[in-house]
Amino acid sequence: MYGKMNSACLYGIEGVMIGVEIDLANGLPQTNIIGLPDSAIREAVERVRAAVKNCGYRYPQQRITINLAPADLRKEGSAFDLAIALGILITSGQLIMPSAKEVLFIGELALDGSLRPVSGVLPMVEAARKNGFKAVLLPQGNAAEAALISGINIYTIDHLCALPNPKEPTSNSAKGVKGGDEQNQRDVGVSGEMPSLPSLPFPVTVTKGMDANERPPILVFSLEHLKYTPVYGASEDSSCAMNEMIDDYSDVLGQQHVKRALTIAAAGMHNILLIGPPGTGKTMLIKRLPSILPKLSESEALEVTKIFSAAGTLKDAHNGLLRSRPFRSPHHTISAAGLIGGGGIPKPGEVSLAHRGILFLDELPEFSRNVLEVLRQPLEDGVVTISRARASFTYPAKFMLAASMNPCSCGYFGSGLSQQHCTCSPARIAQYRAKISGPLLDRIDLQVDVPRPKEWDRQGHVLSSAEMHAEVLAAQAIQVKRFKRLPISWNSELSGASLRRYANLSREGAQLLHDILENLGLSMRAHDRIIKLSRTIADLEGAQDITSAHLAEAVQYRNLDRQAMTEE
């Protein structure tokens, strides 16, 4: 006897449809799962066996072969338990469920038959909708997350025994049904329609002899009694708004030039590095950066929420899609795999969890150099590819890198304080700064000095997050209009022909930039990044063309490049 159910698994951060094929044959009682399963899937045999028996069903004493198709794709996780259990019950004739071919089944079974939530449901449900499925049946713990995808019915179940509807006809009213031979028997599908029993997509048998006294097959006409209606709580925006009210740039006294640099970085999603002695407010300034960033668009919100779902870090889906841009701040002891992603079962790293948001590396030179060097490729390409023997996974990684560092190991080089002198030798300062390689530094658009503040009171105007946010939104609106026909959203993503088209320089500007590059010895990558930064500065001023003043301001933010040239 043969039966087939539908389930799904994750491949990177995308959902992949998996066919769960069940074959019952005469032979020694044993259950084999094939199709490149991992250990968690192979252990599903024992979970399913115990759950089936503890729910009052009979586990077939036959040779059971379960194939997960396509067979050449590595499958991982425990999301197949529900599909395997229902597939065995339907194929053995203990359960009649005409709508099974239209439903995606996801869920992990406990030994008592209850359902446990699994990670990565959001991309799986999205893939099911794209593949034409009308409904998905999954644990109640995943319902809110699955309901974020529109256009597909969500049904939830907390126990295997809750599948039949007690208000509908059960096996007691259909004892004469043996498969699809009764012409006047009717059953209801997912949509509530009434197809005839001869259209059942699977064979139904009732055993004879010693098993003749077993209960007849249980009929599951409809899943409407399990339908989930989403009820969203307070939007995440309200909690984020509360955080923005608490963490405001008006709390930072002085540092007007740093706030200007942060506004430029937020307006074009440019990478930024703050350099200064301890206690000057570098961390405080960067941690308030989310308060001036625009909210995620609908497509960006779905993209970011999928990543958090695949990583198993989507904590509360009842508030809907994530709307605030991610802010990730890993400790400097993080490994390269933790930052870029990886592991035995590859998971998204911090660079992917910061997608469309901010990756903050506090005390940048304290990170291992090997860890920092893995950032070079995602900073250029916006994606991370993790290769394994059996598969290659690609994760999105378009993020703004925000970092802070001291000017030397003691922290007081160039501070100008008579009470605290720098104790580092020139060689030690060079060694400290050499922890950040030239190619990585070349990818940071703004390198800004943060001196000790001189303002100790609130006299005069203090720039607030609301004012900076308004400037960023105005610049973003210009970029949205400019790039509406392109697959990019920010000036920092310009390259090649699009850079020459939308950030074209006048003859005087091109000559000025050429002279600056020759004097400072900057690379061609720095050349392009200066132009992109100038484009953002012009957008903040509402200017159509890039002027020499915009270029000059962009160049003066290449602080470490100018210092290196001076030292030489």
Automatic annotation (TrEMBL):
It comes from the Bacteria. Keywords: ATP-binding, Nucleotide-binding. SMART domains: AAA. Coiled coil: none annotated. One of its GO terms (molecular function) is ATP binding. Residues 268-454 form the AAA+ ATPase domain. Residues 166-194 are annotated as: Disordered. NCBIfam families: YifB family Mg chelatase-like AAA ATPase (TIGR00368). Belongs to the Mg-chelatase subunits D/I family. ComM subfamily. PANTHER family: COMPETENCE PROTEIN COMM, MAGNESIUM-CHELATASE SUBUNIT CHLI. This is Fis family transcriptional regulator.
